[in-house]
Design goal:
The chain has helices at 3-15, 18-25, 29-43, 59-86, 105-116, 129-137, 200-211, 225-233, 280-300, and strands at residues 48-51, 54-57, 92-97, 121-126, 143-146, 156-171, 181-182, 191-194, 217-221, 239-242, 254-259, 265-273. The protein has 301 residues and is α/β, with parallel strands linked by helices. The protein has two domains: 3-86, Orthogonal Bundle (Arc Repressor Mutant, subunit A), CATH 1.10.10; 89-301, D-Maltodextrin-Binding Protein, domain 2, CATH 3.40.190.290. The strands form three sheets. Strands 3, 4, 5, 6, 7, 10, 11 and 12 form an eight-stranded mixed β-sheet that branches. Helix 1 crosses helix 2 (18-25), helix 1 (3-15) packs across helix 3 and helix 2 crosses helix 3.
Length: 301
Amino acid sequence: MELRQLRYFIEVAERQHVTEAAENLNVAQSAVSYQITKLEEELGVNLLERVGRNIKVTQIGNIFLHDIKSALKKIEEAKEKIDEYLDPQAGTIKIGYPTSLARYWLPNVISAYKQDVPNVNFHLRQGSYTYLIDAVKNGEIDIAFLGPVPMKDPGLEAKILFTEDIVALLPNNHSLAKRESLTLSDLRLDPFVLFPNGYVLRKIAVDACHEAGFEPHITSEGEDMDALKGLVSAGIGVSLLPESTFYDSIPRFTVKVAIDTPKAMRTVGVIVPKHRELAPSEKNFYEFLIQFFNKLHQYKE
């Protein structure tokens, strides 16, 4: 069984057409048909069957297709790791991140790292809190930024990079808009716009309201940080969001107000798999992150 045969089979199975597959592979149609026939003879089963002018994958062919695609992905990942060991300065790092870190911290950190290591590549994937944790554990991504940081997960090595306040975002015509700070209970009668259930930033906001002695009246939800800010800007309600999400700008027609009591905060950091050794390019970036935020913390002090 040759890798070439497997790649030919995948191409034909997904396109369900030998001619189109051959054109995409830039090889002769006869070569594709010959290699797939050899593969079927070796396996002793029909993987494909002709239906009119098209090709249909058989039932056992679909099972084989699923497993082979997974196997080839692992082979490609293994080759990438070897390339990284040969040249750690030119590897590819797969990074996961939540929406709350997308606008400021992520681009700034990557930009700073690329100044020192210009040839490294990044594959970025945004996801929910639970997805990012699972993706690091199963190897889908190498490193993930998270807030708050899951310090007690046995499958992860977690590092806190900084801690930040949760602040109130109010429409600029709100009665408390000119205050430098407020008590969270001051907002107990306001409509709230928050992330949907299952999002960790919603839990942080709701828990803070509970600590202040009230149940927030949630009238609108949004899965995107900019969408929530837009709802506040439109006067739909108030929101509680991490302070770093306003580092680049504060939305029009809104004001950011600090919360005195109860003090709501979150940790922000990175996670990597505990039971898998980081490749050199990943390790270099991980160590850079720690140094970057240590220097930033020392500068602020």
